Amino acid sequence: MTDQSTKPGVPAQSPPVDPTLPTDTTKEQPRQSWWKSDGAEPVRRNLGLVGVLVVLVIIGIVTRPELYGNASWVTDNVWTILQQASAIGVVTVGMTFVIIGGGIDLSVGAIVAVAGVWSTTLATQSYGAAGMIFTAIVVGVVVGLINGLLVSYGRLVPFIATLAMMVAARGLAAQISGKQTQVSSNTTINDIASTKILGIPMLVIILALVVAAGWVLLNRTTFGRRTVAVGGNVEAARLAGINVRVHTVLLYALSGLCCGIAAIMLTSQATSAQAAMANLYELDAIAAAIIGGTLLSGGRGTIIGALFGVLVFSTITNLFAINNLSTEVQNMVKGGIIVAAVLVQQFRYRSLTQLFGRKTA
Amino acid sequence: MTAPDGTPQQPAGNEPAATAPAGEAVRKGEAVLKPAGDEPAAGEVVLKLEGVVKTFPGVRALDGVELEVRAGEVHCLLGQNGAGKSTLIKVLAGVHHADEGSITWLGEPFAPATPQAAMRAGIATIYQELDLVDDLSVAENAFLGHEESRGGFLRRGSTAARTREILGRLGHAHIPPRRLVRSLPAAGKQIVSMARALSHDAKLIVMDEPSAVLAHDEVENLFRIIRELTSHGIAVIYISHRLEEIRDIGDRVTVLKDGRTTAANLPARSTPTRELVSRMTGRTIEYVFPQRTGRATSGEPLLEVEGLTRDGEFVDASLSVRAGEIVGIAGLVGSGRSELLETIFGARPADAGTVIMAGKRIRSIGDAVRQGMGMAPEERKSQALLLDEPIYRNMTLSSFSGYARGGFTDAGKEKEAALRTADQLELRPRDVNRPVRTLSGGNQQKVVVGRWLLDKTKLLLLDEPTRGVDVGARAELYQVIHDLAAGGVGVLLVSSEVPEVLGLADRVLVMREGHLIHEAPAAEIDEATVLDLVMAGSLMEGEPA
Questions:
Q1: For residue B238, what are the domain limits?
Q2: Contact residues, chain A, for B390 at CB < 8 Å
Q3: Which residue, A129, A245, B119, B488, has most beta carbons within 10 Å?
Q4: Per mean pLDDT, which of A5-19, A336-350, B156-170, B272-286 is the most reliable?
Q5: Is the minimum CB–CB distance between B117 and chain A shorter than 8 Å?
């Protein structure tokens, strides 16, 4: 979205337009304002989600005006929303890469659980905070690698491979923990969730760092370019000399890495880990990525959009919490929002003229 | 947004009655064509389009189309890619809806809201990419969307019987109605598409490049069916890039350019080619191959292929390409030529034999690309392009790592390089930020070729480089290929169009049923000989390997 050269006219560094150009190209350029151009597409999409967020905040203000009168409560509540979004946000960044790369990872919640449980066994805790973080990340990456190898070299459909991993990894987490909640007695780990730097909670900083790294990785590196190519047209990528198999493995490993990071964040928040942690994270992460504009078929998507998707969900959760409403209603609303968001996207792709043209024709 | 600024230059409402001069020139100052004597007995006008306009955001796809189709005629639509042919047939099929102008079908105003409505009205469309369901049977496909049923249960027996009857009318009674469409060859699938059209009792069948997927003898069969249909009063709109087909099957021709009708109702058989081409391009071009300078006939081979075999595809193929040499392989679809090319590129594993490029053995695509090989595959859209990505990213798909520093891409440098290559190839429009989807077929092909130019490729493998590319853009592509060879790039080219192979290549290989059966310098072999070898192999004087 910082791609300035998508503005109308020719890029600044290029020489003046050749007068022998066919007239059709010069004719249609003034008609395309920057706002309608493809370069502005992520901006328009994210503005829509920002709009949803604004509406949610207005609903909050209308339903609980007395809370919103209190400035310090508002600040605290914003941090609460962001902290709740942090672990799932990190997972969503990994998920977004996998989906843009043409895959899907149903095992993220289970990977978080295995990584969390493994890093909080008494044996692991004896190695201290560094040992726990190291364990969570290694476990996450290794499980992700297995996913990737199954998809890439085992030629399993990603849905099946990661569905199997989802079941198996939850089982492994239950096995390791003996179905018990494992309390973390490591104060360094436990303090992560309560630490603030310059008034910003540590978890939010971690989320921001992961999102920033994810954005750079997707938009500014060869890894990101390969991801879009592999997801957009796997055959074209292959025939262009991109090693599609290796890249696919790396994508799932990246998702696993994000799960490992999220495992530590969740463990710190709860000061414990258990086999049932991060339940249904796969659905939340996929939903956030999709309403953030990532194409489920791959080849297109944005990290920022996915982040907004996560924020919309955690804001809804918060809205229901401050109104003391049940989670059942909340889930129904969430489902509606997913459908609405995807409908809006399709609407835009089919373009307004086409839709209206049908009525008037 | 649809201001009526696109008033066609042809006077609206001009009634081209059967006696009016056919092929009225539209642009002033041009000679009016004489009505031809070989015009068929005129059926009544079934379809009439006047001043049809269709606008998409940023593009005026149709800008005043005039078209008149009579019962029982084959009406050919001619135009370059991007001239609006596809949009026009989608308007007729009810996929798109005209913004302005009038469409009259069987004397009534016609504006189908959906493809189903168009079908019900009697207009069937057979798209280039056949829209069949591979895992349904022939009969189920023929009656898809209007299945015969009673109380919600399918009447399989009577459906099969009706399908058999329709296939019989098409002269293909031997196709079993219960056979899965997946198992049919391309020609068979096309028959099923036509059966579907007839199952709707279509009075007009629109065929979008039906011959593109067919081998030579299958085209003959297609024409036989079309003649059978028209003899029963069914009108056919036939779209093709091959002029000789239009001469063979067509009755009248309407030419589109930039969304406008530039000539209507020209006689298909007698209008000179030069005339047709100039209506399509707005300029008279000689459809010839550029003069080749400095043919490389000596020097070390760049590529050496020895005894390459893939079971069931091709056997014991040996060939070599020198730097600056253009080697052409002539062969039909299914002769194993595309498979051979892909195996040389490392995209398919070989069962036997070796590929050596610049002294190194090639076993994978990675090896091939590293040794300076590049390939423009047969299916541009599905095998080569990221349609929604900008031109420059498609061009740098194989080389973006080379512009990157420490894993970080450099979009600025990529665009600069892509723009240089775009200019070299005369890519239009000259805006590398545009998504490739918005380009015409010829320009998309240039993007694929441009990709390998950027990558400093030493050997380019081209599989049907001009497939779906219009006449004007073809000549440009031929020039590009010659320029590449003149610059020392070796080219190995595959085409089912014999004149193309002969016109471009220095050396010609003929491939038939998996065997390279003949090799000769292009100057020493003529079209008839190659065609004979390609189709029958009767000469068989080249060593059988």
A1: 50-122+203-281
A2: 38
A3: B119
A4: B156-170
A5: no
**What per-residue confidence (pLDDT) applies to A12?**
40
Domain count for chain B, please give it.
2
Verify whether the Cβ–Cβ distance B433 to A243 is below 8 Å. Answer: no
B407 to A237: CB separation less than 8 angstroms, yes or no:
no
In a domain, B257, yes or no: yes
Output the pLDDT for position B480.
Answer: 86
Q: pLDDT, tens digit, for every residue of A44-60?
A: 667 778 888 888 889 88
Q: CA of B457: which chain A residue's CA is closest?
A: A240
Claim to verify: residue B372 and residue B231 sit in the same structural domain: no
Pairwise CB contact (< 8 Å): B397 & A17:
no
pTM: 0.71
Assess B360–A contact: CB distance below 8 Å, yes or no: no
Instruction: Give the Cα separation of A171 and A194 in Å (integer).
Output: 31
Give the residue carrying structure tokens 């069969």.
Answer: B221
Regarding whether B379 and B518 lie in a shared domain, the answer is yes
Select the residue of A36, A240, A361 nearest B111 (Cβ to Cβ).
Answer: A361
**E strand or H helix that includes residue B120:** helix B115-121
| Contact at CB, B369 and A240, closer than 8 angstroms | yes
- Judged against a pLDDT cut of 80, whether residue B541 lies above it is answered with no
What local confidence, expressed as pLDDT, does residue B81 receive? Answer: 58
- What is the reported pLDDT for B59? 64
pLDDT at B282: 54
pLDDT in tens, B511-524: 887 889 889 888 88
- Architecture in CATH for domain A45-346: Orthogonal Bundle (1.10)
Q: Is residue B91 part of a domain?
A: yes
Measured distance CA(B338)–CA(B353) in Å, rounded = 17
Taking CA atoms, B260 is separated from A361, B76, B503, B545, in Å, by: 20, 15, 32, 51
On chain B, the residues whose CB falls within 8 A of the CB of A18 are 430
| CB neighbour list of residue B422: distance below 8 Å, 6 or more residues apart | B391, B395, B430, B432, B446, B450
Are A242 and B397 within 8 A, CB to CB? Answer: yes
Q: Which of A28, A233, A345 to mutate to test the interface with B (most CBs of B within 10 A)?
A: A233
Chain A residues in contact with B408 by the CB 8 A cut-off are: 220-222
| Predicted pLDDT at A41 | 60
Kindly report the backbone phi and psi dihedral angles of residue B286, in degrees, each rounded to the nearest multiple of 5, phi listed first: -80, 120
Classify B52 as helix, strand or coil. strand
Percent of chain B with pLDDT strictly greater than 70: 83
> Which residue in chain B has the smallest CA separation from A9?
B431
For residue B63, which amino acid is it?
A: D
Asked if B58 is an interface residue toward chain A (Cβ–Cβ < 8 A), one would say: yes
Looking at the structure, tell me whether residues B228 and B321 fall in a common domain: no
H helical segments located in B208-363: 216-231, 243-249, 273-281, 337-344
> B233 and B308, same structural domain?
no
Partners of B1 on chain A (C-beta within 8 Å) are 353
Whether the Cβ atoms of residue A220 and residue B408 lie closer than 8 Å to each other = yes
Of B219, B252, B281, the position where a domain reaches its end is B281
Asked whether residue B143 is assigned to any structural domain, the reply reads no
Compute the count of residue pairs across chains A and B with CB atoms less than 8 Å apart: 127
Q: CB distance from B98 to chain A under 8 Å?
A: yes
Residue that terminates a domain, selected from B230, B251, B281: B281
Which is more confidently placed, A113 or B201?
A113
Return the beta strands (E) in chain A as ranges: 182-183, 196-197, 200-201, 272-273
Q: Chain B: give the shortest CA distance to residue A208, in Å.
A: 20
Residue B418: closest CA among chain A residues belongs to which residue?
Answer: A14
Task: Let me know whether B69 and B213 are in one domain.
Answer: yes
Domain assignment present for residue B272? The answer is yes
Over 80: is that where the pLDDT of B398 sits? Answer: yes
B213 with B362, same domain: the answer is: no
The average confidence (pLDDT) of chain B is: 81
Domain boundaries along the sequence of chain A: 45-346
CA B135 to chain centroid:
26
B173 Cα to chain A: minimum distance (Å)? 38
**What CATH number is attached to the domain comprising B388?**
3.40.50.300
pLDDT value at residue B31: 36
A47 or B13, which is more confident?
A47
Give every residue of chain A whose pLDDT is below 70, as ranges.
1-45, 345-361
Q: Does B484 lie in the same domain as B398?
A: yes
Is the domain of B318 the same as that of B361? yes
